[in-house]
Amino acid sequence: MSEQKRFGAAKIAASVAGLALGTVLSAGVAGAADLGAYPGNYGAYKAPVAAPAWVVTLGVEGMVEPEFLGSDDFTVRPAPIFSFRRAGTPEKFRSPNDNISFAVIDLGGFELGPVGKLVSSRKESDSHALYGLGDVGWTVELGGYVQYWWTPWLRTRAEVRQGIGGHSGVVADITGDVVVPVTPQLTLSGGPRVQLATAKANDPYFSIDPWHSFISGLPTYDAGGGVRSVGAGAQARYFWTPTFATHVYVEYAHLMDDVADSPLVTYRGSEDQITVGVGFTQAFTIQQFW
User: Fold this and answer.
1) What burial letters (b/e) apply to 34-70, b meaning 16+ CB within 10 Å?
2) Least CB-packed of 74, 126, 192, 240 within 10 Å?
């Protein structure tokens, strides 16, 4: 990928993220008064209450994202959405970067609990850029998360996860989001993103041993740990009814340190990673019969 092409992609990505974040901030912190009783709630929009009962939210999301981390080509992937809560409690804010989690400690503005993420396998057949580099299997990342609402409109969250399977390292995500309910139906959010990874988490994806170097034609490389990426993201969510909502988001990440220096990225990919997602959710109230 030429420097001119890479510079152009970086300018476009930065413009997209900047425009989206600017829209969020320009909506005004004054709208935070509509958040409801607890930080992170989507205003007054709740599923119909029929206690005792649970509200299950189901949905699907389509993402246009890089074929693999570090790629300069894109692909479309679907993803399911699932969450549940007690009837009568508002639906809490969720960033596209939040992984599946459960609050063991929930004090309204502070949460702590386990978190998990499923990382898909990476195969040579996924992209011509991966030729000669071998396959990386599926990975389950398990760990914990903590999040805190500094004000009703500002949330920070950190996840630390241990990989099992395709990689055996540790990955950490640190995010911040300004959350602005523009109207009871429309909520805008956005903020910075940082991802850290140990050498064991980066090695299967970005290191190149002598054998894979011989097959692929890329130079040998030993990827270490550190800051994997920095970036920003923004999201808009709209409730068409109290139970049906749609959302759209854009996430930008700039690869850093040993990951950015990998020959896979420098010769066959890009440091700039953009993901755009669109999805919908429907909430259902389920009665308890016991």
Assistant:
1) bbbeebbbbbebbbeeeeebbbebebebebebbbbbb
2) 240
